């Protein structure tokens, strides 16, 4: 990174799971740098979804470095995830024709529920020793039985990791959704469901969805249930493979909570 910016810049790791993000500072200038960031960062920047893109540079080895405006701010609290601004920004993302057009031009294929089922079943078969096999067996049966309810739905660009840690509230009160490495074309319920399950009380789902811009009905409820259960199983499997027992337990509890409200 130093050879790109010059010796007058101080560069420090910004953390994160990939270890490819950095903060850069030089006198009054500040930048957020990332190696091989999402290729559609320019569109996200233009639409005000992420902090402003300053420049992009390709290295000799093929890596691409992006520099974004470094904003002072903070992540949202869990309680703030219920606020109207979150629903409004997520709705803006899901209804962005520019984003979906870019994804399609890049050759991105929609994530179909059948693909999710196949992956979950394959992983379950390879993890026969998992302690929660009974709950996962019930979950997989539910997902298979309810598959027709989530097929052939409209697909949009989804962030796929709407955890409160990825929402940046800048000092000027501008809200951003950052870290787009897992984004894909999918049913918007894949974002909506996990957000509602984690942060919004059940009796407030209808009002939150109204702020998002859709009516709370049986169709969206079925899709929310399906994707939350599917994601819960996926996260259990992911953390189990890495021996992350604490995180695994969190998603086991989420899955059990969902299964307790349905007949499987």
Automatic annotation (TrEMBL):
GO terms for molecular function: transferase activity. Keywords: Transferase. The keyword Transcription does not apply. SUPFAM superfamilies: Protein kinase-like (PK-like) (SSF56112). Residues 14-219 form the Aminoglycoside phosphotransferase domain. This is Phosphotransferase. It comes from Salinibacillus xinjiangensis.
